[in-house]
Design goal:
Blueprint lengths: L5 E8 L4 E4 L3 H5 L3 E8 L4 E9 L3 H35 L1
Antiparallel strand pairs: 1-2, 1-3, 3-4
């Protein structure tokens, strides 16, 4: 598969100490802090990390881990979609 960049944002909300992946605009407004990570899963590289707000080191680590895991999961789904489209193209 060609290299694609996948990005995910994770925000920490003060309410109930929640962490949300790919928040809505309203959730972004209510955040304590956020972490955005962009990666190229095909070669296991991270192309960008952006943090904003106030997060303690444990929250930063947790948000980075969740965001990276989300990127890998999203990449697997994208690969499955591309593979299924390639099979359909071959059949026709």
């Amino acid at each position: 598969m060609d290299s694609i960049i996948i990005a995910t944002t994770v925000v920490k909300l003060p309410i109930y100490n929640q962490v949300i992946v790919d928040p809505t605009a309203l959730e972004e407004e209510k955040k304590e802090g956020s972490v955005l990570i962009a990666c190229i899963p095909s070669n296991s590289s991270i192309t960008q990390i952006y943090m904003s707000g106030v997060l303690d080191p444990q929250d930063i680590s947790s948000c980075l881990s969740i965001a990276l895991d989300s990127c890998w999961k999203l990449n697997k789904e994208i690969e499955l979609i591309i593979q299924s489209k390639n099979v359909k193209m071959i059949e026709h």
